Amino acid sequence: MVTRRSFILANWRDLKLVVSRADIVLEVLDARTPLTTRSTRLERIVENMGRELILVLNKSDLVPRSIVEEWTRIFRGQGYNAVYIAARDHKGTRILRKKIKEVAPAFPVVVAVVGYPKTGKSTIINALKGKHSASTSPIPGSPGYTHHIQLYRIDTKILMIDTPGVIPVEGGPLERIIRGTSPEQLDDPVKPAIMLINEILKHNPYAIKSAYGITEKDPLKILEQIAIKRGWFYKKTKEPLIEEAARTIIRDYHKGKIPFYVKPSSINMY
Fold this sequence. Notes:
Layout: E1 4-6, H1 12-20, E2 24-30, H2 40-48, E3 52-58, H3 65-77, E4 81-84, H4 93-103, E5 109-115, H5 121-129, E6 148-153, E7 158-161, E8 165-166, H6 173-180, H7 190-203, H8 207-212, H9 219-230, H10 242-254
Parallel strand pairs: 2-3, 2-5, 3-4, 5-7, 5-8
Antiparallel strand pairs: 1-6, 6-7
Helix pairs in contact: 7-10, 9-10
């Protein structure tokens, strides 16, 4: 049976309602940076409501297999149910379905998919459903989010809430900016772009060269060179239009065009 209710996912009260209607919550993490895309507040809500939690490391196609497997082992070692997938390519969805059935308290089980903006929640819903009917977009804050709760039957044992639960971003300042606001809506995209470039280069010194053919290491000069390469200049001063270059960096990061991921060893996990 399919049910519909007017619903806008905008705050923690709404998110609690989604969790309350599910038996299992899939918390979707960006496999490139799983720690900064985790929500301890969400996990407390899930635990307090007595729901089952599965950590889903999505976008694993952007990370070496050995790295994403290491992250998965770490989370499992901490007592969490964890799997990794590449929902965009429908890889790992069978393993995810199996894990859902393993932790299900009863059948049919209702599953909710939640996570920060742009971790791939809608793509996971699409992949599990087996057809593209949920709205998807690679840029945060853009139109297309589903605003109604609808139950969709995955198979005879699994029902899914066909609405991605969008967690209010509570991570560090960089995550709050690049995931919480569309690049087009940023008053000053240069500052977060510089923060993002520094973070990327810290983990992969060759990322910018690989993505843009630019060997410069200074973030501001990188933005200037991207603008020059693309022919973006202010009409009056003819100076490089670094604001548009900054938005491009943020967009390309979300789209996975910049090779970047965090190793557990780089943040002293051991």
